Amino acid sequence: MPEGESKQSLLGNGADGEEYVKHLMSFFHFMEKKGYEADLKAASKVTLGTTTALKKLAKAQHGEKDPAKAKRLTKVEAAKVRLINAKVAESMLACLAYDLFCKLLRDKPKIQWDRIVTDMHTKNPWEDIKGVKHNSLHGKSQHSLTDCIKFHKLTVFTIDAAERLRYYLMCSIKKPIRWTIRMHISRMEVLNKYLGILPTIKNSPLAVTSTEMGNVPFTEATHASIILSHLPVAWRNQYNLMHKTVPESPCVMLQVLENIKKLFIERYNKKAQANKAKAATAPKMAERVPKKRVHGGGSDRGAPQKGHSAKYCKWCKNANGPYTTHDTIKCRRLEKDGTPKDKPVKPFDSAKKPWKKTGSGDSSQMAYLTEKVAKLKKKLKKTKKHGKKCAHDLSNSDSDSD
Fold first, then answer.
1. Crossing angle of helices 36-58/17-34, nearest 10°?
2. Model pTM score
3. Domain-by-domain residue ranges, the chain?
4. Most distant CA atoms of the chain, gap in Å
5. Where are the beta strands (DSSP E) in 96-201?
6. Angle at the Cα of 31 (from 29 to 33), degrees rounded to 5?
7. For residue 44, how many other CB atoms are within 10 A of its CB?
C-alpha cells in the first residue's frame, strides 16, 4: 500500500454514503496501482476458459466408440487438473484483494466485512446477492469478491440507492444560486460517477425478469440535457435560440452557458443603471411642498379624500361640524329640513328603582336602604339558627342508633 495514503483511506464509524463511495474508489485505485486487478482478471479469464473446455469435453458424442471415448476421458482428466490449478491461482490472487479491502477498514465496517466473508466462504449452503442458495463451499475468486463488496454496500446504502440517485439527478436537483455553472457541472459529473458504484434493485431478490440495471451512469448527451434542465428558464430559452440541436456533452456546453450568464449579468447591470438615472432625474423629496393636513370640521377642509369616505352632511358643514362621517338623512342633530331634533325622554319607572322616586331627597333614599339592610340581617340570622337546629337533630339521631 502506498505510504501516507492508508491513513487517509481508512473507513471507520460514522462514515456517510459519500465517504463510503470514496473508500471504494480508493480501493479500486490501489488494486489497479498494485496490479491486482489485471492479474485477477487474467486468472478469472483462464478459469472461465478451462471450465468451458471441460464442459465441452464432458459431453459424449453420438456413436462414440470405445477408443475415442477413452481418449476423451483422458482429456477430461487433464482438463480437471488444469481447472483445479486455475482456481487455486485465482484464489491466491483473490486473497490479496480481500486483505487489501480489509486493511482499508476499521471499527464496525471491518467487523461487518469479516462477517460477510465468513458467511460467504465457510457456510454450506451459502447464499448469493440475489438470494439463491448453493449447496457447496464457495472458494475465493473475482466473482466472490464482487459479491462480498455488494453485501458490504448494503450496510451503508439501501437496495435501491442507484434508482433514487437517478431520480434525484433528473427531477429534484436545481443549480444553487451562489454556485457558478462550472461548479454545478463539476458536482453533477461526480454524482454521475457515483451512480455506477451504488446498489441497484437488479442485483437483489426483489428484481424480476424485466428489471433494468439502475447503476448505469448517464451518457454524456443525456447528462448534458439533465444539467440544462437544472438552469433557469431564461437561460434554457437563450441556449435553444443559439443552438438547433440538443447539447452534446457537459464540457462542450460549459463555455456556452458561461457566455449566457455574462449576457444576463450585462442586461441586469444596464437595467440597474437605467433605474439609477431615472431616480436621479426625478424630483427630490426636499423640493416637494408637503400639503398641510387640517384636522376637524370646517369650510376650509375641502372635499372628502378619495378612498376614505363618500359621506356628506350639508347641515353639519354649514355648522362647521364633522360632515364627512355621515349622510344628511342620517344626521343625529338635525332633521332633513335643518331643524334640531328632539331627543326622546324615557319615562321614569319607580317599580325598577323604588329608592329613587321623583321629588324624594337623600334622606328618604337612605331610609329605604337602611330598611332593606335590616331585613337582610334578620333573614341571615334565621338561616343560621335553622342550620344549628338541623345539626343538633342529626347528632341526637346518631347517638340513639348507637
1. 80
2. 0.59
3. 16-153, 161-277, 310-341
4. 154
5. 126-127, 133-134
6. 65
7. 20
Task: Determine contact, residues 229/216, Cβ cutoff 8 Å.
Answer: no
> What does the alpha-carbon distance between residue 392 and residue 374 come to, in Å, rounded to a whole number?
28
258: which strand partners?
A: none
SS3 13: coil
Which one-letter amino acid corresponds to residue 254? L
Task: Pick the closest to residue 84 from 46, 39, 40 (CA basis).
Answer: 46
CB 340 within 8 A of CB 346: no
Q: What gap in Å lies between CA 35 and CA 43, rounded to an integer?
A: 12
Question: Band of the pLDDT at 6, cuts 50, 70, 90?
Answer: very low
**pLDDT at position 7:** 46
Note if the bond before 347 is cis, omega within 30 degrees. Answer: no
- Do the bridges between strand 133-134 and strand 126-127 make them parallel or antiparallel, or are there none, so unpaired? antiparallel
**Which parts of 282-361 fold into alpha helices (H)?**
314-318
Q: How far apart are CA 390 and CA 294, in angstroms?
A: 77
